[in-house]
Amino acid sequence: MASRIKIGNTEVGQGQPVYIVGEIGINHNGDIDVVKQLVDVAAETGLNAVKFQKRTPELCVPRDQWDIERDTPWGVMKYIDYRYKVEFDVSEYQEISDYCASKGIDWFASPWDEEAVDFLEGFDTLCYKIASASVTDIPLLNKIRSTGRPVIMSSGMSTMDEIRLGVETLGTENLLICHSTSAYPCPPSELNLNMIKTLADEFDVPIGYSGHETGLSTTVAAVALGASLVERHITIDRAMWGSDQAASVEPQGVARLVRDIRVVESALGDGQKRVYDSEIGVMQKLRRTPSA
Q1: Where are the domains of the chain?
Q2: What distance lies between CA 249 and its chain's CA centroid?
Q3: What is the pLDDT of residues 218-242, one digit of tens each?
């Protein structure tokens, strides 16, 4: 049996309810009010957690891209300035943390650099999510592992050898691996959901799914294939500005996704054959002879 990890007070893994994460990421466009609206969506629809992305822009943005001008909701600005515009400081994260607590919602983040890990440590974070882009960043992985906290590692844009190196670096204790394909949005033909079983067969850790597709059915299918954690980007409105909005789920879709995941995990059962009470009347009516 694959091991479990514990995120806050919740055990995640085989035999446990699917842990469902709403990836806010940078869909807030630097607006705390949008964050709060999305936390409200999470609370109202039954999500377990919301997730953010934390970067130190001068470390994450290559120097040759700093001065490239970009159209943004705040007008044309240098790319480095835009990256700062969508980052929250300590006081803003404290406000977010307090608001999530008031709604009973877990929160955590993907740190994209080592300074971001130090920043998140200041909030006694429940766990860390390693973004697919960071799987090969061994110094970052070592920094995250040194905290001793549970780790969720996405595996998009990675070869099996890169995934193995990431797992070797992190160790399998308190690790969950998410199958993912890093296309936004991802066409169904590239979701490769059977990778959930491939990862489960090779690594003795819980396996999750981080989806970037449009639609909900394939994410629900990931649960049927064994995903113990599901993550989807969420947004107030897919028409909002931002590169991740098109692959995100709006509030009504979030509610349907949670509902369908809970129905499917209930329907999966335990794999032990039994005759249910609801079948007895039908059996007595239709069987010509009693079973031996």
Answers
A1: 5-286
A2: 13
A3: 999 999 999 999 999 999 999 888 8
Q: Compute the C-alpha angle 179/181/184, nearest 5°.
A: 135
Torsion of CA 187, 190, 192, 193, to 10 degrees: -10
Write phi, then psi, for 56 (nearest 5 degrees).
Answer: -100, 100
Kindly report, residue by residue over 24-36, the tens digit of the pLDDT: 999 999 999 999 9
Distance of alpha carbon 262 from alpha carbon 284, whole angstroms: 32
Query: Mean pLDDT across the chain, nearest whole number?
Result: 95
The one-letter amino acid code at 35 reads V
Per the CB < 8 A criterion, the answer to whether 53 and 112 are in contact is yes
- CA distance linking residue 193 with residue 182, whole number of Å: 13
The answer to whether the beta carbons of residues 239 and 277 sit under 8 Å apart is no
Q: Is the pTM of this model over 0.70?
A: yes
d(CA 65, CA 77): 12
Domain 5-286 architecture: Alpha-Beta Barrel (3.20)
| Residue 62: both structure tokens together | 């290559």
- Per-residue pLDDT at 1: 43
Among 259, 261, 290, 262, smallest CA distance to 275 is for: 290
In the block, tokens 């994260």 appear at: 93
The residues, any chain, with a CB within 8 Å of residue 146's CB and separated by 6 or more, are: none
